[in-house]
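Methods — Computational structure assignment.
A single polypeptide chain was analysed. Its primary sequence is given first, followed by the predicted tertiary structure written as structure tokens.
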Amino acid sequence: MSKRYVQAGQPDGVPPLELTGERTLPDVPEENYWYRRHLAVYEWIAARVKGKSVVDLACGEGYGSDVLAGSAASVVGVDANPEAHEHAKLRYVRPSLRFERDLVENVARFDGLDAVVFLQTIEHIEAVEELLAAISSAAPLAFISTPNRLTLAPEGAEKSDNPWHLREYTIEEYRALLDSEFGSVEVFGLFHAGKLAVHEQAIRLGWDRVHKALRVTEPFYNRFTPAITAGDFRLRSGSDADLSKALDFVAICHR
């Protein structure tokens, strides 16, 4: 029987969420790498939506909407999942933040938007072009991200074995998709930095063989993974990095 991972230490009255693989969660030590990887992007976007009215589509647990609300004039976090929606509205309470339970395809119902944030979800969508057209119509600015297929899937495969992903993109495919719906698109790549960059280099030098031979795999990663922070990731532009090697692609799209 597989182990269940449930959020720990939630405030009184806030129901914890269970990790399903469909979305990432804070407060689950084993999930900390993925949470911080997502958080780094939200913090980067938050600095670029100061004073703006924002909708955060597929907001999941709500932590990202809360980060955005720290600088934006107003934020609406939108998610269709009833458990995630209930958790988010109870966990994250600010005058400038509210949560709505709805499909991302209904973005047009939110009026007066300055920006749409749509992270790590486009790979889950069937009618991608229609949704991107709706996002473009809803606001003059959008931040859209997706994982790099080449860092997830086996070489030559069309996608990874993630059951939630309908399609995954290379940098060329992603640019072409967004260019077809927006007037201006700039793509950044998310890369390891800090201790994760050191760890990446160690793996290239044979660390995987060493920790297995020394039988320290579990104790090492039980300490290392929870210690990862958002500062262990960095967004880089295509002018100073090879985006084909990025973990995730993060696009700034203008109508």
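Note: The first helix runs from residue 32 to 46.
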